[in-house]
């Protein structure tokens, strides 16, 4: 609702979730902006970008501000075009503005943020999540992305991430990540990296391909000195080239997983949530069993090695409420855990499967589909 006022502004009344209002107020103050100007910019920006993730606005209290004459009319027209309420549109606009205007108090990282995609159970979508989130981080500003330098690490010897992105796995006799982890590397690890080329990513998205020698990694690590830090030792020489490193883990609970969890631990100079473990699950019972096993392994490492390992969140993948009570009740159970919290529910759609068949990243194959929007939401939630 808007009402005219003297001058060149009008008072606008809507609703906005309290947590968004607080973050907006703090962020605007940090950047030396009037909150009215921040809102005006947010609404204008939102009207010109693609589909944004739905925001939970339940219980949102009233919110008022002043906008330039005509700005609210343009915003209402954009809401009508997208088929969303004014409250939902305003909330999405504020979320987008916050994501694009980070706190200036954040110190620039001297090392990359590390996202460890892990679950002992296969088929829960670790690879799809790794690829999608990595692409979302690397999308350039012309596509409304953050334009970060991203390395995808295919740590699963099955090599699904590698083949999904149209890259050939490394041969058994080739140099590989595994060989560098076990002290058998023959050259520069950087030479193994394959660029993922597309205009959406510029030169910012790279892949460290898989090699079948990963099937014997646990055996080799058993005789490796300080084996938990083997992955970190291998990747450390190239960390400075990237803002984010995403590790697609194998579906196992062996020594390789220990090395991946150790790599994602919170380093002394990091803040909570800078790096950690993301757990993709499905809305069914076997995922709950696998989740218990994985968190047990993480807790053992935490205690045995006195590590700080942050849970960055759960992603309920391939969700379809039409599957009935098992799906809906399982989703409720995941949401009730609370820590780690569910940061996204990714719908089960054909576009992901089609992208895999086409050997294209999802955000290249169909950048406007619901699953692509979910990947961007996850990337923002993990920022």
Kindly describe this structure.
It is a single chain. The chain is 40% helix and 15% strand. The chain has 383 residues and is α/β, with parallel strands linked by helices. It folds into 2 domains: 2-100, Arc Repressor Mutant, CATH 1.10.1220; 113-381, Rossmann fold (3-Layer(aba) Sandwich). Strands 6-7-5-8-4-9-10-11 form an 8-stranded mixed sheet, with helices on both faces. A 3-stranded antiparallel sheet has the order 1-2-3. β9, α11 (285-305) and β10 form a beta-alpha-beta unit. α2 (35-46) crosses α4 and α5 crosses α15 (370-381). The longest helix is centred in the C-terminal third of the chain and has 21 residues, at 285-305. One of its GO terms (biological process) is regulation of DNA-templated transcription. InterPro entries: AAA_dom, Arc_rbn_hlx_hlx, DNA_Partitioning_ATPase, P-loop_NTPase, Ribbon_hlx_hlx. This is Chromosome partitioning protein.
Q: Helix/strand-derived class? A: alpha/beta
Q: What CATH first level of the largest domain would be assigned?
A: Alpha Beta
Specify the overall morphology: globular
Based on the coordinates given, report the CATH architecture of the largest domain. 3-Layer(aba) Sandwich
Q: Could you tell me the number of beta strands?
A: 11
**What is the N-to-C order of secondary-structure elements (H for helix, E for strand)?**
EEHHEHHEHEHHEEHHEHEHEHEHHH
List the quaternary state of the chains.
Answer: single chain
- The fold-level CATH name of the largest domain is Rossmann fold
- Number of discrete domains: 2
| Estimated radius of gyration | 22 Å
The CATH homologous superfamily of the largest domain: P-loop containing nucleotide triphosphate hydrolases
